[in-house]
Amino acid sequence: MKIKEKYRPNVAIIIVNKQGKILWCKRKDGKGWQFPQGGLDNKESPLEAIYRETQEEVGLQKQDIRIIRESQEWFDYKVPKNKIPSYFKFENSKFVGQTQKWFLAELLCDDSHINLKTSSPIEFTDWTWSSYWHPISGGVEFKKSTYRKVLKTFLPYYTSLIKNQKT
Q1: Is 110 exposed, middle or buried (0-12, 13-18, 19+ CB in 10 A)?
Q2: CA-CA distance, 62 to 10, in Å (whole number)?
Q3: Can you give the pTM of this predicted structure?
Q4: CB 112 within 8 A of CB 99
Q5: Which class would CATH give 7-166?
Q6: What's the pLDDT tens digit per position in 65-82?
């Protein structure tokens, strides 16, 4: 895995329900709405990280979702300079942004399995099901370009999933 220097390695997931809506979460710290995501732990694979982060942030276990697709590429975004201290709280952080491996997943369980309070600290205060393209207009401004690229990349797999769910 080749990671750009100064970009924190991260994973993110788009979870699709049976109605074709995607899971969209409100951050507790007032930084807006986003997909579940988080950093890779030392020696952790992106797949291991996405299952861990999904459980920690939204309470969904490995058996609650089915990974449809993993992005082949890593997607980068820069955090605006004035926001870096609140995004990268570690002492002497060298990061200017994040590089992300993305996953598209199908929700296999009932919505009641979504639990934003399964770990501490809590990341999100609310969640909703939104339309596929909503994150481009409803997300954090500096992440929108990345969201657009990821959604375009996953569109054929999302379309196929929705088609198969209806049959």
Answers
A1: exposed
A2: 18
A3: 0.94
A4: no
A5: alpha beta
A6: 999 999 999 999 999 988
